[in-house]
Design goal:
By secondary structure, the chain is an alpha+beta fold. The protein folds into two domains: 2-102, Archaeosine Trna-guanine Transglycosylase, Chain: A, domain 4 (Roll); 113-185. The chain contains six helices and six strands; from the N terminus they run ββαββββααααα. Strands 1-3-4-5-6 form a five-stranded mixed barrel. A hairpin with a 5-residue loop joins strand 5 and strand 6 (96-103). Helix 2 crosses helix 4 and helix 4 packs across helix 6. The longest helix has 17 residues, at 113-129. The radius of gyration is 17 Å and the shape is globular.
């Protein structure tokens, strides 16, 4: 499938939600063309790469549109799945377009129940402290270890260059281990 590409310093895994402010004409066009079921690829901005675009991104679809107080367009997007991007090109208005191929992410996971609950509790605490974040997830899936892990990785203050390794399907054990070490260090 062909998708518009929006490179930003935002890391999303499947199920992740983020809000964007749209003001550049090329991205207003992207929103118009991606409305409905099409969506677009939200990928990491990487200035050293061709088209400043990381080759893997999140295929996102819109969940909300709003006019912001400053008159700009606000959109909320939800990551459906990860996509591999190829055949990138830049159109006349500098909107990036790419061929996107869906890639699998973390398969069904076996996680120790006590570890899963402790990790979910951390995310519940974060949501309790930051209501605006919790509002993005009206139906949180605290019983799904991959979903909880994804949300915590999105929030962790580690460099994006470190986060990109968690796009890989086999990366769940390393992601889980990282989160467990952070959670254990905090207690």
């Amino acid at each position: 499938m062909q998708l518009g590409v929006f490179p930003l310093p935002v890391f999303l895994l499947p199920g992740g939600v983020t809000k964007l402010r749209i003001f550049e004409p090329r991205y207003l066009r992207l929103v118009k063309e991606a409305a409905g079921d099409t969506g677009f690829a939200l990928t990491l901005y990487q200035p050293q790469l061709p088209f400043q675009t990381y080759p893997i991104g999140a295929w996102v679809k819109f969940s909300d549109f709003t006019q912001l107080d400053d008159g700009l367009l606000g959109v909320t997007v939800v990551a459906q799945q990860l996509v591999s991007l190829s055949k990138l090109n830049m159109e006349e208005d500098e909107l990036r377009i790419a061929q996107a191929r869906p890639i699998s992410h973390w398969p069904e996971l076996a996680v120790q129940p006590e570890h899963a609950e402790r990790t979910a509790h951390v995310l519940r605490d974060v949501f309790a402290e930051y209501g605006e974040l919790a509002e993005l997830y009206p139906q949180p899936r605290f019983g799904d270890a991959a979903w909880v892990c994804g949300r915590l990785l999105e929030l962790l203050p580690i460099p994006l260059q470190e986060k990109v390794k968690f796009y890989q399907p086999e990366s769940f054990p390393a992601a889980w281990q990282l989160l467990q070490s952070v959670i254990t260090d905090d207690q």
